[in-house]
Design brief:
This protein has seven helices and no strands. By secondary structure, the protein is mostly helical. The N terminus is likely disordered.
Length: 152
């Protein structure tokens, strides 16, 4: 996550340097091509999203990110229940997802866009892991935030 002295770029700043649906589509497709083959998170994706549904799933993810970053309101799904239903999800999966995502956006996006997408992905990952832990009845009292894993 950004440090206190580093401000997270705003969507308007990212749009000014080129963030649009085409860039989001490029990031999503590049990231998930790598993620689906990753030895840590790939098996989870393959187990829960069948090959014949994969392209449709990618389109939902593009719509999610467009809604989140561009305010398009094209996403109408509910991702939390789907993730709550994956019993094997652990912090290791979230750390790897974030490492791969950071690597992808840093390679494909201008700096402010990458910063915005990384900050948003880290907030999403934290929200998901906390909701999953609560759903599982885990004690959250002393749960530290995720640590960053380096790119493999």
């Amino acid at each position: 996550m950004p440090t206190k002295s580093t401000a997270v770029p705003k969507s308007e700043e990212a749009v000014a340097e080129g963030l649009d649906e085409a860039m989001i589509r490029l990031v999503v497709h590049a990231f998930y091509a790598e993620a689906r083959e990753d030895p840590v998170i790939g098996p989870v994706f393959r187990a829960h999203v069948a090959d014949e549904r994969w392209q449709g799933h990618l389109e939902k993810i593009v719509a999610f990110w467009c809604s989140s970053l561009l305010g398009t309101r094209t996403y109408d799904g509910r991702p939390m229940p789907k993730h709550l239903a994956i019993p094997e999800l652990t912090d290791d999966h979230f750390r790897r997802w974030l490492a791969l995502f950071r690597h992808t956006v840093n390679n494909l996006c201008p700096p402010k866009t990458a910063g915005l997408m990384i900050a948003r992905s880290e907030r999403i990952a934290e929200a998901f892991r906390i909701n999953i832990a609560m759903h599982r009845g885990e004690d959250l009292t002393f749960r530290p935030p995720l640590t960053r894993e380096p790119y493999p």
